[in-house]
Amino acid sequence: MQFHVVSCRESAHLSRSSCKNAQIDLDTDLAGNPDAFNPAELLLAALSACMIKGIERVVPILKFELRGVEVRVHGVRQDVPPRMESITYDIVVDTDEDDRRLALLHDNVKKFGTVFNTVAPGTELSGVMRRQAHTV
Asked: Residue 59: is it exposed, middle or buried by C-beta count within 10 angstroms (0-12/13-18/19+)?
């Protein structure tokens, strides 16, 4: 499988990446651009998308029942050398499945995620998958 993305500078404040029929605005402004993802945020978004896509891939195989998924990702940047020092995540699944099945789903996310397994060797990557708390 191969992937192809093209990114172009639109101005000193914004760049744009395209692939297939999609586009995403990029914060490439040295002062920051609140209307676009910066490169570190894109990395975290790619990681969270990888987790959700992995869940979507195995849900039918495991016959896992879920109503929704939310992934919260937090990254800490190291200055010298510049890199993502650590990433923590919290995967919140809206489900009635038991803890054993939830752990199985989490194992699949960690084992088969392309972005997850690309980031993990070079970054302290840790997190949990938990059931969404329901208020009565």
From this structure: middle
Rounded to whole angstroms, the Cα distance separating 50 from 57 reads 10
Q: Which amino acid is at 51?
A: M
What are the pLDDT tens digits along the chain (136 aa)?
999 999 999 999 999 999 999 999 999 999 999 999 999 999 999 999 999 999 999 999 999 999 999 999 999 999 999 999 999 999 999 999 999 999 999 999 999 999 999 999 999 999 999 999 876 5
- 32 three-class SS: coil
Asked if 73 and 47 touch (Cβ cutoff 8 Å), the reply is: yes
Rounded distance between C-alpha atoms, residue 101 and residue 99, angstroms? 5
| Cα–Cα distance list, 19 to 6, 16, 41, 46, 49 (Å) | 7, 10, 18, 14, 16
pTM of the model: 0.92
